[in-house]
Design a protein that fits this description.
53% of the residues lie in helices and 18% in strands. The chain is α+β, with helices and mostly antiparallel strands and 513 residues long. The chain has a five-stranded antiparallel sheet, sandwiched between helices. The chain has a five-stranded mixed sheet with strand order 9-11-12-14-13.
């Protein structure tokens, strides 16, 4: 119910302020319409009462004749002149054939007053009074026709009352009452009140305060909405332009951020967004500096080896320089590949939508691939599948999660001794899915348990191939896990106080059913 109403306080405030002015105007109009109809009905009742009294007097005093009654027109006209009040109403008397007998405007002893037009200036033609605009002939004809129709109904014995137009175009309240002797209609008495337009004009004047109040409320609400919405939005737009044009790193509008409405939420979101963009820009700058530093080392080694190669004549020394050149080229190739993968990581994570992934099945497939391609003397990879393990489903991107496990397994294999074993396990617990990758290597120095996740950090065991690692694998793995709302950390495996290897713990939130 009422689902069309906005769910925010600011939206309800906008609707309430805009509707309030209209509600005041509508309420005022409805009240005055009821009052207008009430005044007209009251005028009709008053005229009906007067007309019935006057018709009864004329009927009792000035109707003669037996057995066929008739009305004395002269006496009835004199009575009408005495009873009518021409200042507020007009009384007319018609005979049985609908012909006018008497009219209070004609028999009244009064002087007609008319406002003269302003004096004409010299050289201007003065219009004669006879040229004063008169009511249109069509309006007068319609008024006479309406009066005849009303009198005709009254001659049939009906009481007629209502609004109609007079001959000069004004609206009048008219009541026509038949003068009857038993069943015979001897004439019709018509009373007209011509103050309807004056009543309507007064009603319109009474409507002006309501209109002024509605306009004031509308203007106040518009100014309030401008102050609450338009001006803050303009400030936000200008702040965004400063960030775009001046190279600022963040939007700072603390007074808007304290607001407890949608604009406050928008301001805080923009501040958080620009702060995140600033951190991303800092990360990109740092990444670019690290890339330049890491690429510079093999390039420097390559340049030194190339410059020295022409000067060395000993075949053994030349062979050693060639091996250095090959190792540096291999290291550059590895660096460029990992840097390319790291630079595309954010775009790939934002482009792919998370889907349910069975982590146990994914790990089993990856371990099976390592086992299928293993050679004699390679470090073995084993999946320690627990008995009765329930579904281990997480929301994520299968390709990215697979890259995490490959990076962790490759890292563990590089630190494991020949003939060693890397064990991968998956388990559930408290709404989480926990995966571990364990090796039997020398372990990790306690001070480096977090350093190993930094970009380009490498600390290889003796005998490892030079340039075979770029130091980006663990950094990429942690970035992917954090993008999935999980955590990745490292710790040592200790038995009887002795370090027997390292283990990486990957924790991801379990997918909701």
């Amino acid at each position: 119910m009422f689902r069309w109403l906005p769910g925010s306080r600011l939206g309800r405030l906008i609707i309430a302020l805009n509707v309030l002015g209209l509600a005041i105007l509508i309420a005022g109009a409805l009240v005055l319409n009821e009052l207008r109809q009430g005044l007209v009905d009251a005028r009709i009742d008053s005229l009906t009462t007067q007309g019935e009294l006057m018709a009864a007097i004329i009927d009792q005093a000035f109707t003669v004749g037996e057995p066929t009654p008739a009305m004395d027109a002269n006496d009835a006209s004199l009575t009408l002149q005495m009873l009518a009040n021409p200042k507020t109403q007009r009384a007319r008397l018609f005979d049985a054939q609908g012909r006018p007998i008497a009219d209070s405007e004609l028999v009244a002893d009064r002087v007609e007053q008319r406002v003269l037009p302003p004096a004409a200036r010299r050289g201007e033609a003065r219009l004669p009074l006879s040229l004063k605009p008169r009511p249109k002939t069509a309006v007068a004809a319609e008024a006479r026709a309406a009066l005849r129709a009303e009198v005709a109904k009254a001659l049939r014995g009906q009481h007629v009352a209502g609004l109609r137009r007079s001959e000069n175009g004004d609206r009048v309240v008219s009541v026509s009452i038949p003068i009857q002797r038993v069943q015979a209609v001897l004439g019709v008495l018509t009373l007209e009140a011509n103050d309807v337009d004056e009543i309507i004009a007064r009603e319109r004047m009474a409507l002006i305060p309501f209109i002024l109040i509605a306009v004031a409320v509308s203007l106040s609400s518009s100014l309030l909405l401008t102050r609450l919405i338009a001006q803050p939005v303009r400030r936000l737009a200008r702040a965004a332009d400063r960030v775009r044009l001046a190279g600022a790193r963040a939007i700072s509008l603390p007074d808007l951020a304290r607001r407890d409405d949608e604009l406050g939420d928008l301001t805080r979101s923009l501040e958080d967004m620009t702060q995140a963009l600033s951190e991303r820009m800092d990360a990109i700058e740092s990444f670019a500096a690290d890339v330049a530093h890491e690429i510079k080392n093999p390039l420097t080694s390559l340049r030194s080896a190339v410059e020295t190669l022409d000067l060395v004549t000993d075949p053994t020394a030349r062979e050693r320089l060639l091996r250095i050149l090959k190792n540096d080229v291999q290291r550059l190739d590895r660096l460029v590949t990992d840097i390319s993968n790291a630079s595309r990581l954010d775009a790939e994570l934002s482009r792919d939508n998370p889907k349910p992934v069975d982590l146990e099945r994914l790990v089993a497939d990856i371990v099976g691939l390592y086992q299928a391609t293993a050679k004699p003397g390679d470090v073995a990879v084993r999946f320690a599948r627990p008995v009765g393990l329930e579904a281990t489903t997480v929301m994520g991107r299968e390709g990215s999660l697979g890259q995490v496990f490959r990076n962790l397994i490759d890292n563990a294999r590089s630190f494991s001794p020949p003939g060693g074993e890397v064990v991968v396990a998956v388990q559930r617990g408290a709404g989480r899915v926990i995966a571990t990758v364990s090796d039997a290597g020398p372990g990790i120095p306690p001070e480096n348990l977090e350093t190993i996740f930094e970009r380009f950090y490498t600390s290889r065991p003796k005998g490892a191939a030079f340039g075979g690692n770029s130091g980006l694998g663990l950094s990429i793995a942690r970035q992917i896990v954090e993008a999935h709302g999980g955590t990745l950390r490292a710790q040592n495996r200790v038995v009887d106080g002795q370090v027997i290897g390292a283990v990486f713990l990957l924790v991801l939130p379990e997918a909701k059913a």
